[in-house]
Amino acid sequence: MLLGSLLVLLLLGTAGTASAHAALESTDPADGSVLKSAPRALTLTFSESVALLDDSFRVYDPDNRRVRTSSAHHAKDAGDTASVTLPAKLGTGTFTVAWRVVSADSHPVSGAFTFSIGKPSATTPITTAPTEEPLTGSLYDIARYFAYIAAALLIGTATFVALCRPPNPTVLNKPILMGWWTLLAATVALLILRAPYEAGTGLATAFEPSAIPKTLTSRPGSALAARVLLIAATAFFLLRLRGRERFGRVALGTGAVLAVGLALTWASAEHASAGIQVPVAMTSAVLHLLAMSVWLGGLTALLTVLYRSSDLDAAPVARFSRLAFASVTVLVVTGIYQSWRGLGSWNALTGTSYGRILLVKLGAVTLLLAVAGWSRRWTGRMVEAEVRLRVPELVRAGADGAVASGEPSGGAGGGASHPGDDSEGGGDGAQERRDGSKDRYRRGLRRSVLFEVGVGVVVLVITTLLTNTLPGRAAADAQQTATSAGIPAASVTTVPFRVGNAGGKVQITLDPGRVGENSVEAVVYGPDGGFATVPELRLSFTLAAQKIGPLDADVKDEGGYWGTNTLNLPIAGTWTMKVTVRTTDVDQVSVSRQVRIVR
């Protein structure tokens, strides 16, 4: 059910191209600069360490012919740089540099810039980042989603069996098996797709003889290989424990070590492995992933047991309730730390894509906690119903013992039982009412847990999207460095609008705000400054001086914002951006603003 729901969410609407994680801070020569003589080397500096590819640099001369260069290397052995040596004679005119590297958190990043020798060419080339094969990136992202969900299913279900001790643990064999096989398949797929994903090439690259060996030498590839070995060790461990209803300390300790090892394969190759406070961040990431798995995977196990075990009593439910509360506490603490580490400032919460996705996640988590509180109340009622059911049974057991010893069972007065007493046949009706009450609470808990699992899947999807987005702290630092170094930052324009008595504003971000392909992100705010939804938003761009346009940006509703990654503005100049906002079926307004696009 979890995997099916996740697939539906992926098909109905996921984010487009992921934002870069290693932000470019400077280039030498500077972008757009005019040099008197040819440089001996090109050097790029990033916000974090990067890994280099065989084809990290492509340099083209003014006639669009590729320039022969040395292999890419780190300048002065600095891991956050990428450099290439140029030939001695380059000629004059404008040269284009297309580059692609892999950031420390395993995500590839690419871009392009130009510089001129002597004087700019009469025709300035359009500088765009190296083209990528979208199918490869989409398949890689889908495999990552399935790996997350499978880890939660495997770790959470196994933890539920070990610590909550359901009466019939065999009903959970299938979820554990499904989680194990899905995690193995997703990890193998990630290993195979890693080489074309880094290079931005088609699937055929994955089957080249050198692809897998080269992947295994990189940090992400090593993490994936370690995950495969841990998955195999987990299979051996689960087979050894098959059929046991109770687990000793050694078994629990071994399971915990395997779970921590699996979590480390994520933490060592994503956001936590780069930036500030890496040891603390990796510890937090491991705890966050484990707590998420125990909670959401445990919910799936609880839901399975509620549907398939008719003899489930309240004890395993109560144990999981306490376990879930501890997991939520860990999630909140580690989530706050990771949010602070990723954002860096309050402005980044609304001013960056990372912050806006984080706000959506916080809203989903708040809903998840509310549903969890609902489930917790049903658990309490179920426990109380079982206690009320067991008390008369204990009284009857005591009475039977008294009769067997020759003592009167009617209490101090020695009176006989009455037809309405719960302790005899007259109590059958009361017991039926208690059984019915317990079943009602069980059905209520089943519904709330089902809803909780559905919201949990959404939270997992948002979490994975968040790992694909440049952290707000890095985005702010890169923008500040780029601005001071003369590299154009993203263009941000706020357009107020009013339709009848209603109004608001649209914040439109063009990244990089330069000639060539741009990504567009438009966020609509209501009159109170909060996020607002509109049925339709259209953007078009016109350059009247060159008689170009209007060019339709073709923005799509991405859930919380409108965006596209395919807006191509071919010429520098002051463009007229027309924003059309439709608030109802009949009400809409168009507002125009001037936007400066640079080379």
Explain what the structure shows:
The chain has 599 residues and is of the alpha+beta class. It has 12 helices and 17 strands. It has helices at 2-12, 134-164, 173-199, 211-216, 219-241, 249-267, 278-308, 314-343, 347-351, 353-404, 428-467, 472-485, and strands at residues 24-28, 34-35, 41-46, 50-60, 66-67, 81-85, 93-103, 108-117, 491-499, 502-511, 516-525, 536-543, 548-552, 556-557, 562-569, 573-582, 588-597. The chain has a 5-stranded mixed sheet. Strand 16 and strand 17 (588-597) form a beta hairpin. Helix 2 (134-164) runs antiparallel to helix 3 (173-199), helix 2 (134-164) crosses helix 7 (278-308) and helix 3 (173-199) packs antiparallel against helix 5. It is globular and about 80 Å long.
Q: Give the tally of β-strands.
A: 17
Strand content: 15-25%
- Computed structural class: alpha+beta
Secondary-structure element string? HEEEEEEEEHHHHHHHHHHHEEEEEEEEE
Helix segment tally: 12
The biggest beta sheet reads:
5 strands, mixed
Share of helix, binned: 40-55%
Strand line-up in the sheet with most strands: 2-8-7-4-5
In short:
Helices cover 48% and strands 21% of the residues. By secondary structure, it is an alpha+beta fold.
Write the layout of secondary structure elements.
Blueprint: H1 2-12, E1 24-28, E2 34-35, E3 41-46, E4 50-60, E5 66-67, E6 81-85, E7 93-103, E8 108-117, H2 134-164, H3 173-199, H4 211-216, H5 219-241, H6 249-267, H7 278-308, H8 314-343, H9 347-351, H10 353-404, H11 428-467, H12 472-485, E9 491-499, E10 502-511, E11 516-525, E12 536-543, E13 548-552, E14 556-557, E15 562-569, E16 573-582, E17 588-597
Parallel strand pairs: 2-8
Antiparallel strand pairs: 1-3, 3-6, 4-5, 4-7, 7-8, 9-10, 10-11, 11-15, 12-13, 12-16, 14-15, 16-17
Helix pairs in contact: 1-2, 1-11, 2-3, 2-7, 2-11, 3-5, 5-6, 6-7, 7-8, 7-11, 8-10, 10-11
